[in-house]
Specification:
alpha/beta, TIM Barrel
Length: about 280
């Protein structure tokens, strides 16, 4: 028995081939974005043009070098990068604080100057540190850049990543740990990037977690589980329901597609992903 799930939504979700050429009118409830790295084989200008045609408003994980290209196409940089050292050397280790504080102190005003508001950061790998030590170190370090972030109206956003499959030993691998860090930092300019793919792998219970913790979340990423490919019926998550839950929290930020396309026409796969999430 289908219950309250719309047949149209299921039909859209189940499509596994190329989408039609018909112009899809986005509903406007989701601010759609896409992560650049998943489409690295497509030249930047071609990618921007394709994203714009789909109705995507912004591109994630782009640094200062490519911001001028985004601006030419009228696209926003929804999650800036370039201040982080890497994924493993992060805020949970005091050995990296000096470099990180200097890097973020320089990047935050640049982000603001260009009209952007989100800048990504990472906890780093545990390297034997327990949860409490990691929380204390992250808190101590991040507090030193929060006044700059607040002054420039820039949100520092720590990404939740799975430590089971893709990022072994990463410390910010559970929503509860990330939420506790947000509370300790105690700034309106520090929140989480809830990556649906990563959190399905490490903890599941995605919709309930979003409902209970949405006030600590500034941004969302998608991805099919398992494999991090298309978010259609070839994987286990039902994205229309997840997006509906996000919309109902009152979220006004960006949801960025971060799946690695397997279709020959990568932009068609991206268009399908956007349509699936457009509730």
């Amino acid at each position: 028995m289908m219950g309250s799930v719309a047949i149209g939504a299921l039909s859209s979700f189940d499509t596994r081939g190329p989408v039609s050429d018909n112009k899809y009118e986005l509903k406007g409830n989701i601010n759609h974005a896409v992560c650049r790295w998943c489409y690295g084989s497509i030249p930047m200008e071609e990618f921007c043009a394709g994203a714009k045609e789909i109705g995507i408003k912004a591109i994630d994980l782009v640094g200062p070098t490519d911001w001028p290209v985004l601006k030419r196409f009228g696209l926003h940089s929804s999650m800036c990068n370039g201040a982080e050292l890497n994924l493993v050397d992060g805020w949970n280790d005091t050995a990296f604080h000096e470099k990180l504080i200097r890097s973020y102190s320089e990047m935050i005003p640049l982000v603001a100057k260009n009209g952007y508001t989100n800048l990504i950061c990472f906890s780093g790998s545990r390297r034997g540190k327990d949860d409490e030590t990691g929380l204390k170190n992250c808190t101590d370090g991040l507090k030193q850049i929060m006044s700059i972030a607040e002054k420039n109206n820039v949100m520092i956003v720590m990404e939740l990543l799975n430590s089971k499959v893709d990022h072994k030993d990463y410390q910010c691998d559970k929503t509860s740990w990330g939420v506790e860090l947000v509370k300790r930092v105690g700034s309106p300019n520090f929140k989480l990037l809830y990556d649906i793919y990563h959190m399905q792998i490490d903890e599941g219970d995605v919709i309930r977690t979003i409902r209970n913790n949405h006030q600590y979340i500034a941004h969302y990423h998608t991805g099919g589980v398992p494999g991090r490919n298309e978010i259609d019926a070839t994987q286990e998550l039902y994205y229309p329901a997840i997006m509906d839950a996000i919309v109902k929290t009152g979220f006004k930020g960006f949801v960025a597609q971060e799946f690695i396309p397997t279709w020959k026409d990568k932009l068609a796969a991206l268009k399908k992903g956007v349509e699936i999430c457009d509730v």
